[in-house]
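User: These chains co-purify. Model them together.
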Amino acid sequence: MQLTNRAKPVDRQPMTFLESLYLWNILKGMLITFSHLFKRKATIKYPEQKRSFSKVFRGLHVLNRDAEGRENCTACGLCAVACPAEAITMEAAERLPGEEHLYREEKYAVKYEINMLRCIFCGLCEEACPKDAIYLSQTFAPANYGRKGFIYSKDELLIPHPVNDKEAYQKALGEKASSN
Amino acid sequence: MYLLAIDLWFILEKAILIASIIGLSFFIAMYTTLAERKVAGWMQDRHGPNRAGPFGIFQPLADGGKLFFKEEIIPLAANRSLFLLGPGLAMITSLVTSTVIPWGAPVVTANGTIPLQVADVDMGILIVFSVVSIGVYGIMIGGWASNNKFSLIAAIRGASQMVSYELPMGLALIAVLFTTGSLKMSEIVASQAANGWHVIYQPLGFIIFFICALAECNRTPFDLPEAENELNFGYHQEYSSMKLGFYLFAEYINMFVSSAVISTLYFGGYDIPFVNEAAWGLQPWLLSAISFGVLMAKIAFFLFVFIWIRWTIPRFRYDQLMNLGWKKLIPLALVNMIITMAVMLWLKK
Amino acid sequence: MNIIELLFGTLSVLAIFSALMLVTSKNPVYSVLWLIVTFFAISGHYILLNAQFLAIVNIIVYAGAIMVLFLFVIMLMNLNKETEPQKNRWLKLAGAVAGGCLLLVLVAALKDVDSKKPENFALLNGGNTGLIKNLGKELFTTYVVPFEISSVLFLSAMIGAVVLGKKEKQNEAAH
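Assistant: Joint model of the three components:
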């Protein structure tokens, strides 16, 4: 069966004397490698240069806040249900009076953990969320020495406060800010 | 005691020369390791090491420092004294060859001329040859003393390869010696400066010599003694720390010295091509410095070719290696010798 | 005592010591290595006699090629202290007698030398016969017949080796 027109039958003829000296073919090969000296490098100088991610890249999760800095999440549990890898755990609590500046709705998540070792970064949690409280950012989980370090708690997931810590908030939003 | 009757200035002059040549060998070998990695990177469309210092120029220091601080392991079953002797021998033999190479035009001072050569002996090139033939002991002793099958096989491979490739090397050399009529390195260079480089008269001899030099340095495509995929790591498998460093370093010094020998024998040594430098009327020391620089440029080119070949050609199979050596190169070298003889006789008549 | 005599003494001691070590060491690999040291000491003597060519060729041929093959064989056969066979006592005696005969011949030859005549001594650091040009001229004029005969000897040895190698191949094909 012929798949492409590029297929070449293997040449099994015995080598001629000139071929068996290997010199000509070696010279050809050396010219090829020499031409590669001047080619564009396929690699980049990593910490200084970074490759940009695509817009739809799904990286680490971020728990969102609204413009006043109140947490969006109401601990409805839809993300945990949607998660195929069962990486999300949460505990809900009722908002007490005086906490209105912290949580947007009457219910909020006291505990919100994502196990990054289980997570497959499919983005279903983002799709399931009715409150736009969770989205996947463009960074990926850094290396860690212990398994514990990969279980991200709520403090690590929450986006910085948009009023108190504007710069960090804009940075965390990343490309999402420009797309919205 | 007549011992004190030795010319102290002579001793001092030679000691300085020897020390600087050894220092130079180490320096060049260090930076050849960096060049090797850089060129390998470029040829594979990568950047190569670029973390230690600008463009990675401190990489050899980092590598050397790493080797120094590695744990030194001597296997219990190894033959301890020979195990220690091996890397030392490899290092010594790679350094000794540089004694007979003329590194530049002699410096003329008011008190006489100082040749930039440790020993301009009557046997010149034969000394290079004898040291090359001794060089195999570093590999053999190290490989055997490790008490490891892989090391032993690598050592035996290395020995047979080096002994086999010495023959065509010598035969190619004889043709050069016909044209110069002397074994002295200085006279070989002088005759090339007068009559043109040997590579013009002896292209075949040069190719044979170069291939044999690759084999004698255990460089790809002849790096069978350290064939990673078959012999793990070859003859220095059991070595660690700076003893391993000695072996690896000796290989690069060998490369440097054989580049120098090739430049001297076939590419005019320190002769500056296409010009009559004596007509410039420069200071003699400046002329010596320029000629040294020219030799270094030639050596750098050959080092690049060594590296270039390594990252182009895969390793020969062992039977191919032996076939090439005994059935192709030796007859070719003999033919080259006979043609040279015939042409010389014809020209004399 | 000048520097040449000093060097001569050192080299002689080294040569004799390494030769003794060669004979007495139990491990054949050590023996080969001591033999190489002996060759180097002898090459040093040649250099003292200004026979540079002989010195270098001694190193290239003996230390560099023949000893490599010796070492090669010993390493491949993995000879060591344990595998050394017990030697026959008569064999030892025969060896002693043979060595004694050689000593006798040497002593007899040296006994009659007139130590007063200077031409009976090899010149230390003198004479140019050992330099390559003079040696070549001597070999191809005065001593051309023995030189050619020895080359014929080498040729016959080479042919013998080829014949031996060929014969084995035919046997293999016949099997």
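Chains A and C do not touch (no CB pair under 8 Å).
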